[in-house]
Design a protein that fits this description.
Blueprint: H1 12-27, H2 33-47, E1 53-59, E2 63-71, E3 77-79, H3 83-91, E4 95-97, E5 115-123, E6 126-135, H4 143-160
Antiparallel strand pairs: 1-2, 1-6, 2-3, 4-5, 5-6
Family: Belongs to the free Met sulfoxide reductase family.
GO molecular function: L-methionine-(R)-S-oxide reductase activity
Domain GAF: 11-163
Amino acid sequence: MSYALTFTATETDALWAEAADAAEALVAGEPDAIANMANVAALIWQAIPDLNWAGFYRFDGEELVLGPFQGKAACIRIPLDKGVCGAAARLRASQRVEDVHAFPGHIACDAASRSELVVPIVAGDRLIGVLDLDSPRPGRFAAEDQVGAEALVARIAAALAGA
């Protein structure tokens, strides 16, 4: 497989579909979850515009621990009762936040972040972690971004679990 990925879609749903196809191809046959997370974080960083952070937090059974990402240095550990990532993991439900400064308990790893989309990664009934996307643009993530990110995660969850 060539790792020179090109994304041509201009509509949000089509761009996420291209990214999901590429992510599925990148992780195919690779059993290492960390390697898969690293490649998918880079792919999302390349494919999705207006991000200042894209990556993963892994669930260690107690809290979220920083995984592979693209962007500035980040918080290393996040309790499930803190921040947008903690809420997504605790509730096992995506969190789309238009203004992170209005989110109670928001953890500001990068002061430039203004909006956030966090999608839980669940394989079977086991929480693997979360995909975290931040943008310096308020209201950056639309419902179509959430649907697209959830579909991408669903397609590769087993590979991110190391299965």
